[in-house]
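RETRY 2/3 - previous attempt timed out on the joint model. Re-submitting the same 674-residue input unchanged.
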Amino acid sequence: MKRLCASLLVGSIALAAFCSTAVAETIKVGVIATFSGPNAIWGKQFQEAIQVYVAQHGKEVAGNTVEFVYKDVGGPNPDASKAAAQELLIREGVKYLAGFDFTPNALAVAPLITQAKVPAVIFNSATSAINKQSEFFVRTSFTLWQVTVPAAHWAASNGAKKIVTAVSDYNPGVDAENAFVSAFEEKGGTVVEKIRMPLQTTDFAPFLQRIKSSGADTVFAFLPAGPATFAFTKAYNENGLKQAGINFIGTGETDESTLDALGDQAIGLTTAQHYSAVHDSELNKAFRAKHAEMFPKSTLNPASVGAYDGVHLIYKLIEAAGTDGSEAIEAAKGLSWESPRGPVSIDPASRHVIQNVYIRRVERDGSRLVNREFDVIESVPDLGFSR
Amino acid sequence: MTVALSIVVDGIAYGMILFMISIGLSVTMGLMRIVNLAHGGFALLGGACAHVLTNSYGIPFIPALLVSVMAVVVLALPLERLVYRHIYRFSELEQVLATIGIVFIMIASVNLFLGSTLLPIRMPPVVSSPVDLGFKVLPLHRIIVILAGLAVVTALYLLVERTRFGIYLRASVDNQATAASLGIDTPKVYLAAFALGAALAAFGGILGAELLPIEAYYPLRYMVLFLIVVAVGGMGSIIGSFVAALSLGILDTAGRYLLPDIGTIFFFLAITAVLALRPNGLLVKSS
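RETRY 2/3 succeeded.
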């Protein structure tokens, strides 16, 4: 009897294993992001892009049905992120994790995904070090170094000689300052002053006065999108820096989600970034048209393309490896495809996306403000990974 | 010398904005003795209303400002009658909990209809044009705010110190029972004072929006700032709030000019020192 039971058990396990590889099933993808609170915009952008991708490509992949399960963590909250990942992995049985807006939220799940051998596709978190924490991280967004170094090189080869950096005093800001300063000095430029501004500040007049009297020809700024950027760009115009001929170069300050709120004062701001909602390609036009049809009140931004490409990547991995996490990660390395942002591929070393970085200028296009691309630095890897 | 002048000018401009956004709280919290954490909520509602009027309906700034302030007053009146009237009798902790609950409802409502992004208020372009003062360039907007702040502090001082309403208000706050027995209609006085506080919040929120932009989480983001001004100024002292706002503005600006890296710590250390020396506020004598 005991033997019969044992052989039945073995048989059913074998059958279950057989089923999981050969027979069609529902593959769940857990999306961890912020859907409530002041940063709810991240979750919204992710979810919309996922839905657009699914509407364009269907939810069937190699005979399997893909289902997305969303978990809200309410902002930068590593504990909530870890708990959400645990629940998704154990109770929901997800085979892929995705999302991750804030760096701490991604870092928190590193031990879990390594243990469970479940790939996690990062749609946004931009700190280079994340991908070192687990072999199972793949990233479809960008890193600070990836966009900041091209910004510095571009500025240096377009007439900037003396520069001031003005960054918000928090980790990403300090990172951006380091990246910009080292890249700019490498190209022979001079950094006149490095200013770190308190994160909560919204009165930037004193800092801009300093920048103005420093004798620099360009200011590199790094601030979180939202009130800080709004107040900084306002102060940049109102304190007469534009008239004084001091150029502005930034990275993500002119994010499409807050660009219209910045108003006409933003016109002319130059930034380096991997994606603009008005990138000129057929694929992006189709993406934009479908998005506008499904979410007429919304707008695309870099978070959207991170999620859109993230879903594309997950579909490709399911095609190649089904639910085998380790095999999926191997399949991801070196994968290349055409994204709405242009050609991209996954760097086998850093598991981060290699992509073009565009230099854009804010322009008015009808009733909207847009980031118009006018120069490009091609195939940039994550320049911060080996630091 | 130029730096000193810049600090003073920028500091006064910043301080005046601090004053404008906090003076409403000084009225409700200082004069009426209610811990009204929902103060920023009224500023948010006023700002959101001005955003919708100027951006979606293309109404010019000045009419939009007036309509928004009126709209907030219209909302504040039934709120006082139905909700705040009960809150007056609560203990301080209960007041904190009740009013923060009201803030959450306000935030969620704005979030639901307008989303959590910035809600810019469109102003005539001339307002943001730089004005050259010789030693530094200042946006016209700051000069307008400085003048508006001076007008508000004068009007409010005269209202509280020199009018019958001011006497009624001070009497009602000091001893409600005695004031009522002398024939003062205390519920009406409270209603009027509360509406005044809400109107000032909306007015300050809209005028200060160039510096502290309106968005759904505005009331929580700047709550500490409002409370600091009222605490340092001394509860119920309008002139105290004015002096406090200006000195804090100048202090913060000086910190940012001279010690940008540690400006924030400098600011809070200074506040700690002031409150340690004068726990009841700058101008209020200890009782």
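The first strand of chain B starts at residue 130 and ends at 132. Closing ticket.
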